[in-house]
Amino acid sequence: MPEPRVLPTAADGRPRGPEAVELLFALMDRMREDFGAVAADFDLTPQQAVTLHQLTDEGRPMRELAAVLRCDASNITGIGDRLEAAGLVERRTSSTDRRVKALVPTEAGRRVRDDLGARVAELPPIAALSPDEQQTLVGLMRKMVAPPQPRAARP
Amino acid sequence: MPEPRVLPTAADGRPRGPEAVELLFALMDRMREDFGAVAADFDLTPQQAVTLHQLTDEGRPMRELAAVLRCDASNITGIGDRLEAAGLVERRTSSTDRRVKALVPTEAGRRVRDDLGARVAELPPIAALSPDEQQTLVGLMRKMVAPPQPRAARP
DNA sequence: TATTGTTATACTCTATAACTATA
DNA sequence: TATAGTTATAGAGTATAACAATA
Fold this sequence. Notes:
2 copies of one chain form a homodimer.
Chain A (H helix, E strand, L loop, with lengths): L16 H25 L4 H8 L6 E2 H7 L4 H13 L3 E5 L7 E5 L1 H15 L2 H4 L3 H15 L10
Antiparallel strand pairs in A: 1-3, 2-3
Helix pairs in contact in A: 2-4, 3-4
The structure holds a DNA duplex.
């Protein structure tokens, strides 16, 4: 039973940046695997599931989705194609700017999105924590996901 | 500036499984992007960087790497090929079982691996936390990454 | 001119299945 | 037989560059 290569733990309680990174990677691998299994249950790839998960009932412009998913806009075309082929989304041209198209979830799409969300919320890594611990985790992650660079105004 | 779709926050302080999942996904996207940028600085793809990062100086059997990286063993062949072409690893056949080959980092590989590790440990998401917070995060993640299923012995 | 979505291209990752060489 | 690594294959994600339609 192989284990990830993890740097030695500090016995002094000092900052553990490297260790935190190792664990974060291990956690990401774990979530990727667990989430992928749930997505597969809905006949979706992980990215298709993530994209569907990001759709509000009103739909979202494809450009906006690319920004949220942090990928090039051209990728959304293909992902949208496949979600559309699966009958989970429709493309709707904006009435105010005919250049923009929104990916709008169909009724089936909304159902899958919600069912998938419920399943994901019960995944082991999250469920392994007590309510208090989940609360603590949420607080820490909020700080971590914050702005890339505070862009301090130092004139 | 689009934002991820995040479920409403509880005002009652009760378990926030869904919210924790949303933030975890956002964090994963963020880390994927940041880590990818660092890997690119070393002319590596994210997976190549992760693989190199998992190598000890003695090298690791390819099968073991597949288990650690949670992917099919056949993928390691290609990743190993590319790392080898870049002069960062060598294949070494085991002296005790000639079926197994280990991916062993070259001197250049060890240098890149270490430099890359140092860069990653300083990524913004981690650096955004204080030493105490990092310590707390490590504790939480240890529980989360634990065994897939405790596999309780209930005869 | 600038922006949105699309297309074309090339590369990587991914799993599956069949193969080889060992054990 | 069983296992480690390989090869072949197919599908999906990714970025880059160029394009049409629209603003």
